[in-house]
Specification:
The complex is a heterodimer of chains A (about 450) and B (about 425).
Chain A lengths: L29 H4 L5 E5 L5 E6 L5 E8 L13 H8 L11 H8 L3 E6 L4 E8 L3 H13 L5 H20 L2 H14 L12 H6 L2 H11 L5 E7 L3 H12 L24 E5 L5 E8 L7 H15 L5 H9 L3 E7 L8 E9 L5 H18 L3 H17 L4 H13 L6 H10 L3 H12 L5 E7 L2
Parallel strand pairs in A: 2-6, 7-11
Antiparallel strand pairs in A: 1-2, 3-5, 3-6, 4-5, 8-10, 8-11, 9-10
Chain B lengths: L1 H18 L6 E3 L2 E8 L5 E8 L12 H7 L5 E2 L2 E2 H7 L3 E6 L4 E8 L2 H16 L5 H19 L2 H13 L13 H6 L2 H11 L5 E7 L3 H11 L23 E6 L4 E10 L7 H13 L5 H8 L7 E7 L4 E10 L3 H16 L5 H18 L3 H14 L5 H10 L3 H11 L6 E6 L2
Parallel strand pairs in B: 2-8, 9-13
Antiparallel strand pairs in B: 1-2, 3-7, 3-8, 4-5, 6-7, 10-12, 10-13, 11-12
Helix pairs in contact in B: 1-13, 2-8, 4-9, 10-13, 10-16, 11-12
The chains are: A alpha+beta (about 450), B alpha+beta (about 425).
């Protein structure tokens, strides 16, 4: 099943319609767009959180169940276990035999899938609204009745190993990110590869999966999100019928390695199958803290300014003007609940050394601090963020993901509706100060992939 | 239980047809080249300008059309990169070159100022003919780096190598981005000539989806095509593919952990009336994940791959049934053997009527889910426009799937699936 590598997934957060008062919105008004006007959220007696998001553009509904567990909950020896369990969740119960879950959804004309991130594991089905009950019935069934068999596990382990070869082993940039995160954080939090190491995938036992399932797959640790065109009272009855009866498991304390890890900022120099040298400059990004959210938003806006688009600093100056880079990029996570990294990277042109490229990137940071930001680029930046936020409404799936990620990270979807007010407080000078505070004279990991040739 | 699902599916099909009305596709001011779906549920407009010129028209300069479109990224309007101007108003601007046609796409928020400005910028792109030598040199270096990078990556390389063999002697055989040596040969005047060739009214289709009326669309189109020459249509010649007449393995060695396997088997074209039978065949064979033949044999039974699937590549003059998978090098030979066995089994039509009926219901019930965003609708309009499909597309599709039968499937497998002409390409270390 698919996996979410949390890179740019939440680069643009929700901004409501206040910016767009000048637009001629014949159908939508600001009130229509706010999530709070379309969401009903409540807890079942067993503590399962339910979120109902209405969107009646199409007669479609997405049923998704999110568990608050992902790779950041893992430890050395069981890295990748959340992801393997995600695969095994399709191996059946007494009522729905192995491999049949997706077939049933498919035969209804729907689609289904699952994903694992650093802080969550999620499952969803997208169907005609007439079939919501079938989704709820089967999803609630596998929340408690999953049958884990050795024969299935042996084969699925091979599948996961193939997935790792596909996503990581034959991809130099993925390997470089994996090494950088491991050096930064070790086998803790966001240092742990979502897919797990090959050794751990090989050595995880069926009993480990059973414990993981029992510990984390309980109503109190989950969020059910129903998004789309549904009848509210009927849907609530169905949810109560299928999920209300599920009891919580008694969690078993996990034997997790507790020794601390000291961040190591030494350079990482690799050789691999790349055409040109590829560079990553990784800074430590602090955990997201709701009360200190403006600080994080400032960083988000700064990153957008630095390399969020074609008119951003790195592309404009290093690719277009100075022509020292063939391309540049940024990788970050907007809502890290553990320490993470913000990486600036790119491919220097032939004849430009990796050190020269690194220095050019730092020159751009210094330039922001020294000469500030123009009104033009600041307005362009806000215009992009505002529009992107509206474009997201075209996708029901995208909206569901946004809510699910925030809920699983225990931040809460409500933050989406206050985001605009928050970022409206941010000034050009704030971005300058943020650059000074976070990117100047700060330690970083310098990762280089040199071509094999 | 199986019977239950069949009946259940049929009932649901009836329910869905009664409950759902498909979007209306209309020709803007009766011009069949300009299509519109109005959707007022969001204040968004999506527009695609398709140019019926793709990499297969590159002639003796493979990569020419792609490099020509890349030059748009360097185009300036009043000393500002045109791409940056789109960004400054929050619009998303993209361009893409395919084998058959190329496209420019813009997504923006609907207001009068935006429509006027976007039209002006698009008109500028279509009429301006300027490219500085230093910009061309930079673009060439960037593309050559991408070409080299693709040659180091097993997935893209498998695709390139298979195209070269399968389409040998046709315009489809070379990579869209060209080769190192052909990129070196492209000069500024080649780009300007290609811009003149591409940007004329005769080669342009326009598709619009979103919060815009027919009159507004017509006005926008007239603005963005202003002063554009009428030009001439390309003299269309159907593509003929010459096959060896025997299935063979094209092995490409590379130091990787996995072998990437890609297979092309000639099948029917998108405009062939038998196409819908092939859609059902593909669904059952490998196009629908869990429960499909390939997924069951390769992943569920043996755990040989994470990803294994088949898909149709429907062109105007021909079609391809494509199969794709990756597996560790040690398993590559076994996987290729299983895939070959499955292709031969397919030819014998081992599908039972119940399976076919379930597949048809599933495809029909999935139809509206596949087009649930404006962006997906825009992609569909492009396909309808390029292939001159019926504007009553949704109903034609439903009726055509309904008319697929066990007999039509047997017939097409017997007469239109040329497995002896399949080519297998495998890139890896096996």
């Amino acid at each position: 099943m698919i996996k979410v590598f949390l890179k740019k997934i939440l680069r643009y957060k929700n901004i409501s319609f206040v910016f767009l008062v000048s637009f001629s919105l014949s159908v939508y008004s600001e009130e229509d767009i706010k999530f709070s006007d379309r969401i009903e959220s409540y807890l079942l007696p067993n503590k399962l959180k339910v979120i109902l998001l209405e969107d009646k553009r199409n007669p479609i509904v997405i049923s998704s169940l999110w568990y608050k567990v992902g790779s950041s909950y893992e430890a050395k020896g069981v890295t990748g276990i959340s992801h393997i369990l995600e695969h095994m969740m399709f191996k059946g119960t007494e009522k729905v035999k192995s491999g049949k879950f997706s077939e049933i959804i498919k035969n209804l004309g729907g689609t289904d899938n699952a994903f694992t991130g650093r802080d969550f594991t999620g499952y969803y089905q997208k169907v005609h609204k007439a079939h919501l009950e079938e989704c709820l019935r089967m999803e609630s069934d596998r929340m408690t009745n999953l049958i884990l068999k050795e024969t299935d596990f042996v084969k699925e382990r091979n599948v996961v190993q193939e997935e790792r070869r596909l996503r990581v082993e034959d991809r130099p940039i993925s390997k470089a990110f994996e090494k950088t995160l491991l050096q930064a954080f070790g086998y803790h939090g966001y240092g742990i590869p979502i897919i797990g190491t090959m050794d751990d995938i090989e050595n995880i036992k069926l009993n480990d999966l059973r414990s993981w399932y029992k510990n984390y797959y309980s109503p109190k640790n989950a969020t059910l999100i129903i998004a789309g065109d549904f009848e509210r009272s009927e849907t609530k009855e169905l949810i109560h019928k299928y999920f209300g009866i599920i009891e919580n498991n008694n969690s078993i304390p996990l034997n997790k390695e507790t020794e601390s890890h000291i961040i190591d900022f030494k350079d990482i120099i690799l050789r691999d199958s790349v055409s040109n040298p590829t560079v990553l400059i990784s800074f430590i990004q602090p955990k997201f803290n709701y009360n200190d959210r403006l600080k994080h938003y400032k960083m988000d806006l700064l990153l957008e300014l630095i390399d969020g688009g074609s008119s951003s600093r790195l592309t404009k100056n290093l690719v277009d003007k100075k022509k020292v880079a063939l391309e540049t990029f940024i990788s970050s996570d907007s809502y890290p609940i553990e320490e993470s990294i913000v990486a600036f990277g790119g491919i220097p042109r032939d004849g430009v050394s990796v050190e020269k490229f690194r220095d050019e990137i730092f020159l751009q940071f210094k330039e922001i601090v020294k000469n500030g930001i123009t009104d033009k680029e600041f307005n362009s930046l806000k215009s992009r963020l505002t529009s992107n936020n509206i474009y997201k409404l075209d996708s029901l799936f995208g909206q569901m993901m946004q809510i699910g990620i925030l809920e699983s990270k225990k931040i809460g979807w409500e933050i989406l509706d206050t985001y605009l007010q928050d970022i409206n407080q941010i000034t050009k000078q704030d971005l300058v100060d943020t650059a000074k505070e976070n990117l100047i004279d700060k330690e970083f990991i310098f990762t280089v992939i040199h071509p094999n040739r | 239980m199986r019977l239950f699902y069949t009946i259940f599916g049929l009932v649901l099909l009836f329910y869905q047809m009664a409950a759902y009305s498909y979007p209306k596709i209309s020709s803007i001011k009766s011009n069949p080249d300009y299509l519109l779906i109005t959707d007022n549920s969001l204040p968004i407009i999506d527009i695609t300008i398709n140019i019926n010129l793709g990499s297969r028209h590159d002639g003796n300069l493979p990569g020419l059309m792609n490099l020509t479109f890349e030059s748009i990224s360097k185009l300036k309007y009043e000393d500002e990169k045109i791409v940056d101007l789109f960004e400054s108003m929050g619009a998303r601007f993209n361009y893409n070159v395919g084998k058959d046609f190329s496209s420019i796409t813009v997504r923006f928020i609907n207001n009068q100022g935006n429509i006027i400005f976007i039209s002006k910028l698009l008109n500028y792109i279509l009429t301006e003919r300027r490219l500085e030598e230093k910009d061309l040199d930079f673009l060439k270096e960037k593309i050559k780096n991408t070409i080299y990078s693709q040659s180091l990556s097993p997935g893209p390389l498998a695709s390139i190598k298979l195209d070269e063999k399968f389409f040998a002697g046709t315009g489809y055989s070379h990579p869209i981005i060209g080769y190192q040596e052909t990129i070196n040969s492209i000069k500024t005047n080649n780009i300007i000539d290609q811009l003149n060739r591409a940007f004329n009214k005769s080669l342009i289709d326009i598709n619009i989806v979103g919060n815009i009326s027919e009159n507004e669309s017509a006005h926008m189109i007239s603005k963005l095509l202003r002063n554009l020459p009428k030009g001439e249509k390309i003299n269309y010649k159907p593509t003929e593919i010459k096959f060896n007449g025997k299935m063979f393995l094209n092995k490409v060695s590379m130091d990787t952990k996995q072998t990437h396997i890609l297979i092309f088997t000639p099948a029917v074209s998108r405009t062939d009336e038998q196409y819908y039978s092939f859609l059902v065949i593909n669904y059952l064979f490998g196009g629908s994940g869990f429960g499909s033949k390939l997924f069951s044999e390769i992943r569920q039974k043996r755990g040989l791959a994470y990803s294994v699937y088949s898909y149709l590549r429907p062109y105007k003059d021909f079609g391809i049934l494509a199969i794709n998978m990756q597996t560790k090098n040690e398993n590559a030979r076994e996987a290729i053997k299983i895939l070959k066995d499955e292709i031969y089994k397919l030819k014998n039509n081992n599908f039972d009527p119940e399976e076919i009926s379930k597949a048809k219901n599933s495809i029909l019930n999935n139809f509206y889910i596949r087009y649930d965003t404006n962006r997906k609708m825009l992609g569909l309009l492009s396909q309808i426009n390029y292939l001159n499909l019926n504007l009553d597309y949704f109903n034609v599709y439903v009726n055509s799937i309904n008319s697929v039968s066990n007999e039509s499937i047997s017939k097409i497998l017997e007469k239109e699936l040329f497995i002896e002409k399949s080519i297998i390409t495998a890139v890896g270390n096996f």
